[in-house]
Amino acid sequence: MLSVNEVQDKIIKEFELFDDWLDKYNYLIELSNDLPVIAPEYKTSQHLIEGCQSRVWLLGELAGNRIRFTADSDAIITKGIISLLIRVLSDREPSEIIGADLYFIDRIGLRENLSPTRSNGLLAMLKQMKMYAVAYQAKLNR
Amino acid sequence: MNFDVNKIRKDFPILGREIHGKPLVYFDNGATTQKPLCVLETIRDYYTLYNSSIHRGVHFLSEQSTEKYEHARDTVRKFINARSTNEIVFTSGATGSINAVAFSFGERYVSRDDEVIISEMEHHSNLVPWQMMCERKGAHLKVIPFNEQGILDLDWYRKAFTGKTRIVAVTHVSNSLGTVNPVAEMIQIAHQHGVPVLIDGAQAIQHGHVDVQQLDCDFYAFSGHKVYGPNGIGVLYGKEQWLYEMPPYQGGGDMVDCVTFEKTTYNELPLKFEAGTTDYTGAAGLETALEYISGTGLDRIAAWEKELLEYATSKLQSVDGLKIYGQAPEKISVISFLLSDIHQYDAGMVLDKLGIAVRTGSHCTQPVMDHYRISGTMRASMVFYNTKEEIDRLYDGLLRVRQMFGK
Fold this sequence. Notes:
The structure holds 2 protein chains of 2 kinds.
Chain A: H1 4-16, H2 21-32, E1 48-49, E2 56-63, E3 66-73, H3 76-89, H4 94-99, H5 104-107, H6 122-141
Antiparallel strand pairs in A: 1-2, 2-3
Helix pairs in contact in A: 1-3, 2-3
Chain B: H1 5-9, E1 18-19, E2 22-23, E3 25-26, H2 37-50, H3 60-80, E4 88-91, H4 94-109, E5 115-119, H5 128-137, E6 140-144, H6 154-160, E7 165-171, H7 183-192, E8 197-200, H8 212-215, E9 219-223, E10 234-238, H9 240-245, E11 256-259, E12 264-266, H10 280-296, H11 298-317, E13 322-325, E14 334-339, H12 344-353, E15 356-357, E16 359-361, H13 366-372, E17 377-381, H14 388-404
Parallel strand pairs in B: 3-15, 5-6, 5-7, 7-8, 8-9
Antiparallel strand pairs in B: 1-2, 4-10, 9-10, 11-12, 13-14, 14-17, 16-17
């Protein structure tokens, strides 16, 4: 399995193919179809990350010693970005997730989407992914 | 009509910018308007030549600065046709003005179980301050509903008054639906019950004539930055008798007459409500902005904006699957809409990359979105420096959005 940074570098390469913004968005729309979608019974207020612009649902489950994320959003571009975050962070051990430095967001030009002022739920979602990792690590260490 | 919009656009340097390599289409005027060069020059001149703290300074600059500030107050008075400058309070914006009234009026006149009437289409700024006051006082909000078109239910309103109704606070123009409310009639109805009315004019002042004497409103609030003036300055108009009776909202310098540790007496109107060093450069900038639009002609501005609204409405309606929210016959040039079931955030992000600035979301009117059971809309808010070509660009952009999201 590729490391966190190897996956990030791969994504950066993929996005280098596009010089037009709309092509990038088209790719994100395409990626939104690959998102491992949260099961309907978990699409509840308990797993909702409320943003002013778009809403995100996130679930992290422990499978062995790895965390598996599923998610959804009401906005498709947001969904595409989530699918990238999940591609980098899902099916990993908690320590990898906690230690991950997500530089790819910046490099593919999507940083504005993770700015606190955008309020689309993505930044809160990223925090929530790390929180899951911290909680599950504590559980595994017990 | 004969309106040289290209000449006007030259007064607004920012409109010449390119965004993501494309000429900017600025359709977010409901959030804030751009500033003409003359306003920028006023502010520059102020800091270059006159800057000095106003009121009570003995030296030349302070006096000149004070004169400019009070001159700006008189220009605002004339612009909205108030009786006296005692009725014009400078604030930080419409939100600041409404908070001041909600607090001070509430302190003086509202008690447990009293009622405040607002409407379902209020901006959060004309909702939350009243809610806070009601919580403090144990009073209740009563909310005038609106119909599918975005028109307030006046029959409901007429019947809403009781012996416990203390004040009505309603918006002149809805920021998310564009509806121009029949505020003159609503004020008249309230006055028949002896109830005063605050009008939130944040979305009205930039679109046409506002005459507070003709309206007979008790309070009128607006922001400088939405009427081509600087950020951070706003106006509260209040009938002198109310302002005289109401206690000050904030304490500090300039609002006092005499201060001892035992007791403080307050300054005369309107300074009683202007604690601390006010935004006097902002006031000067606002004055220039009001003179600028008066010079351009409020009637000509309104006529061009009406033409833009009609053009944009028919153009957007021709986009397959586009739905407009807010279809009142009396509307300003604001169009809230959704395209099929495409999320407004997705559409807004694509439009942004095409150089088109629209607002997406609830526009600080969550109850309006709840009314239509939607999470938000896109909003194109146009003003007199916008063009039909820009509306065509939005139209083309929306076709692109629809194609990208396969609807």
